[in-house]
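queue> pop job 88
queue> type: inverse folding (structure -> sequence)
queue> payload:
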């Protein structure tokens, strides 16, 4: 007699047997809803994925198609020209001036930002500029090397020096623009009132969900307000508008890639983020841990919601659309993407003299990881590897740092002096 009620296994379960979600039925159908979704993920192909075999003459059209579709996926609204930004204050620092501004990318929206202007830069002597986009929970103040407005919200105190992106660019002679990611720092809600180390993450999850039901997304909103800030930078007479770069850490790295792909006048991009295929990650990260839990959603979830993305493109394709401009990937990319996407893309764009560089160091005597990582991140990755059995996925993505067209100093030197 057939049992009509499925039972739950008791005792030890071989989690390796469940590493890949597959049907155990003769007809190939899934009862598990997770299995249904994983099958959809496997069946879905990106229609605008970079194809190294495309004729060189079609590359420009492909870049244009990616740019058009990305703008559509991010759901940029069509709005009139924004009002002029407003200067809120100015203080002298050693070798530069620190300015507080706000710009108005949408009706009823005011976004504060900091401008670090090196001494000697003026409308008569403009300088190249960099839009600096911080990581998930970091602030524009951390990027500028300034005290946090809310000290209780400074959750990554171990990385004070590493996060001074805007300050270091300013010291190199750039006008550096630092801005908060939406919902972080000065743009947070109750965290500004009562503090809290992680309160903004819950706030972002909430309003990110609301944006999603409005037909938008957190990433779409973030990219749009930063896109409008680029317009502000172009209008600043102290900025050499032909030499504007974007630079981002972590979450800001994704946004920097979006902005460079969408704006052809962005001269260079620094993506301090591991560039991998989001679609492939969720398709393959399915092995459960000893407790039977499969790996959680990527990152903080809402930051990876771009409706429809998997049907058209993924992050390596977006980065390839930046070619032939200088692109620095400072946290690695798979060897496959390097050989099948990045190198062919820059060749098709007409770049003939370039190289890739790797900065590796031994970790625990056997593993390799980018030297830019601190021991804290290395320990985190080691724990994730142990918990979820990520024996190749993370090692592959974190094993090299290819620098397209030249090294890190190229991005500074070429924009500043060439």
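queue> result:
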């Amino acid at each position: 007699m057939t049992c009509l009620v499925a039972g739950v296994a008791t005792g030890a379960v071989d989690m390796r047997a469940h590493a890949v979600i597959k049907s155990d039925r003769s007809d190939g159908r899934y009862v598990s809803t997770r299995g249904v979704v994983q099958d959809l993920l496997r069946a879905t192909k990106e229609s605008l994925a970079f194809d190294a075999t495309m004729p060189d003459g079609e590359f420009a059209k492909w870049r244009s198609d990616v740019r058009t579709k990305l703008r559509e996926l991010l759901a940029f609204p069509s709005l009139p020209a924004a009002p002029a930004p407003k200067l809120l204050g100015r203080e002298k620092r050693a070798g530069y001036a620190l300015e507080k501004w706000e710009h108005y990318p949408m009706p009823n929206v005011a976004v504060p930002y900091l401008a670090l202007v090196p001494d000697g830069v003026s409308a008569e002597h403009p300088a190249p500029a960099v839009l600096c986009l911080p990581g998930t929970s970091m602030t524009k103040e951390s990027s500028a090397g300034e005290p946090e407005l809310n000290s209780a919200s400074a959750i990554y105190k171990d990385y004070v020096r590493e996060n001074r992106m805007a300050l270091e660019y300013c010291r190199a002679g750039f006008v550096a623009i630092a801005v908060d990611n939406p919902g972080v720092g000065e743009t947070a809600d109750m965290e500004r009132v009562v503090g809290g180390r992680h309160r903004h993450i819950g706030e972002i999850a909430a309003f990110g969900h609301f944006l999603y039901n409005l037909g938008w997304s957190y990433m779409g909103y973030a990219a749009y307000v930063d896109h409008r800030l680029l317009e502000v930078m172009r209008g600043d007479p102290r900025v050499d508008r032909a030499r504007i770069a974007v630079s981002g850490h972590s979450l800001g790295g994704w946004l920097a890639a979006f902005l460079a792909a969408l704006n052809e006048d962005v001269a260079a991009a620094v993506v301090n983020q591991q560039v991998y295929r989001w679609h492939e990650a969720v398709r393959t990260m399915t092995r459960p841990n000893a407790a039977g839990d499969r790996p959680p959603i990527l990152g903080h979830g809402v930051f990876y919601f771009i409706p429809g993305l998997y049907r058209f493109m993924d992050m390596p394709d977006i980065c390839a659309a930046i070619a032939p401009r200088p692109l620095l990937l400072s946290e690695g990319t798979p060897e496959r993407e390097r050989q099948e996407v990045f190198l062919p893309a820059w060749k098709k764009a007409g770049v003939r003299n370039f190289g890739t560089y790797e900065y590796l160091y031994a970790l625990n005597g056997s593993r390799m990881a980018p030297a830019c990582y601190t021991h804290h991140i290395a320990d985190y990755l080691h724990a994730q590897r142990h918990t979820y059995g990520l024996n190749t996925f993370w090692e592959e993505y974190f094993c090299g740092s290819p620098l397209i067209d030249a090294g890190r100093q190229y991005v500074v030197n070429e924009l500043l002096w060439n």
